Amino acid sequence: MIKPFIILLICLGLFSCRDLSKKTVNEHVTMEIVKQTQDSTCSLEDTLINRGLVNVQSIDPRIKVNLRYSSINNFLRTDMYGCLNKAYFQNETAHKLAQAQEYLTVIDSNLSLLIWNGVRPRSIQRQMWNSLDMPFKEKVRYVSNPKNGSIHNYGCAVDLTICEQDGKLLDMGSDFDYFGPAANTNREYMLMTDSILNFIQFDNRKLLRTVMIRAGFSTISSEWWHFNWMSRYEASRKYAIIE
Ligand SMILES: [Zn+2]
What we know:
Layout: H1 2-14, H2 22-38, H3 43-50, E1 54-55, H4 56-59, E2 64-65, E3 88-89, H5 91-107, E4 111-117, H6 122-131, H7 136-142, H8 151-154, E5 157-164, H9 188-193, H10 199-214, E6 218-219, E7 226-228, H11 232-238
Parallel strand pairs: 2-4
Antiparallel strand pairs: 1-3, 4-5, 5-7, 6-7
């Protein structure tokens, strides 16, 4: 009786989000709860723990997690992470995320970081790469080449946004994994001039960048939601890829 009740509560909108993907995000959270109740063990999660990675919510439970690749609410429309529904990182990356959350809380205690993607094992990245039926030049725009590895493979990168305590997402001007100019961080003034981005969206992105950069993360020019704790070179010197 408890499971249908939880799902009913979610459907009533307790976790509703105010962006354009309201419906799909709600559906995703429902799926996650169902998954959590069905899967008592998760071999992928065991592998990550054995490799020394940590669940960021065990460091800071104020941080919210909604792994988009653990649902069909992603650009591949495929659940790539299966039973994994917690965000794992290298220990120092997780602690830096907690620091960013603290900076955010000081600015506005109603806001939380919401993580869409943490560590991504290379085997899953390879599956993503192989599932994209398009020329190589186009493919690299969507998924980084598994041959080279990515900072996500080391557990030192994060994809995230900001939400309110009731789960409503701050409007950032584009969804996660939106592959168009509106995702870019390096020409936001131009995007505002062209009315692709409005001032509120710009301000929300600035808030995310402020707390993340203050905690020590760096941005990239193509995706407002992606932050690196260290470069790929530094990560490769310090850690092994999670295969
Ligand atoms: Zn990313």
